[in-house]
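Sequence in, structure out. Go.
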Amino acid sequence: MQKALGFLLLFLVQIALGQNVDLSGEALFFKNEPIQIFKIENALTKQKTLIAEEYILADGSYQFKFNLDHAEELIIKIEMREIRIKIHPNSSLKINFFPIKYADNQRNPLKYEVLYHSVPPNTAVDSIYQRIEIDFANLQLNNTPKGNLNSKYDSFFSKSDSTYNDYIINDSLFNNYYTYLKAEAYLQTDVSKQKLIKHYILAKPILYGDPSYLRFFKFLMNTRLNNLIAKNGQAFQKVKDDYQIYNSFMDFAKTDVLLQNEEIRSLAILLYINGASSNHNLTKEQKASILNQISNFCAYPLQKEAALFLQSHKKYLKPNAEAPHFKLLDKNGNEFSLESFKGHPVYLGFIHSQSGVCQRDLKVIETLKKKYKKVKFLMVITDRDSIHLVNLPPESQNLKYLFLNNEYEVLEKYQIWSYPVYFLLNSQGYFIQAPAKSPSEMFEFFAHEFVKKSKRKSYEIISD
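Output:
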């Protein structure tokens, strides 16, 4: 018994010692909702691991205690919004989240402040790095003509280099963030992007594990690739039509003088196809083909592994794919699943009742639903607090409203970041259009697909 108690005491001591970060704060706007903390396992694929989860209390407060072995960037997630914070072991800090004007647009970042109560000794902590950011922000308040920014920024960072030299040398995390603060600052000047690529990308090894490096790399390379495609439209058209689209894309990108390094070129293409900036140049099918070919034929292990991971986890919403399942409540608290509507074509919308665009669309839907009664119009109301049908046409036999009620997994499944977004499903629950055209653009399609066919038979008249 004593032995067991001894082990238990040791276990509890280890737990207590292991929780070397105390994180608390206020987030009244998100009361009663979950707040999660993730470690970044792979910066290239944005793969993350949940390390802590709590609920924000009714008074808006929350608190975490967890362990960190070393200073690193963590992701704090509320709803679908994510912020990245550098946190150090043996520290106590408070992060307060504030209301945001358009809270129901999921792309809006959170407003927050970071306050340290205690910090580990001999470490370049956030408070020191934030001092540089604040000083730099104050510098920017003085509206200087663009041509003069270079010398001002050179002077500012030269002074900072000497002031924080010890941190820059001894703390790699501080060094990386400071380096890419400088890099992003110079994006605002008349220093050419070519010069920034040469200095911050070509002159350094690829930092696959550094999120700040990859964000800067992706921005510059996406801009480069988009400009390259715009200038060479016909040549790129041949690349898109080629079965070996990845190798052809690699060869095409090589025509850029700054993309001669094959490893950099391969990483640039991987990040490009995995982001939204490539949407107007590549279809989802072409992106999937490139990803498949990278996972099979790429010479660089990290890109290859990333492509394999993205291939298995990326869910492309495309025609003929099955629509993700969900269950939500109606205004009476009754549960409905998407499968409840099988047997009918479904025009599925994600809308916000206070949005003027959504309200105008619903007036069009009111006309559509009367004309095409075999189509079910299913609208998911995404308002944060509303469970009332405000400013919306009344429900009918083929118009139904369901409420999100903080079930943000549904928005993640359908990749919804702003409203309205629509999808058209066939009677078996598979996408016909993903996303679908707006209601006002659907009249011609509906008339072709869902109009009642005449049952009258035509007869040939045979005369003697």
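Check: The radius of gyration is 27 Å. The chain is about 40% helix and 20% strand.
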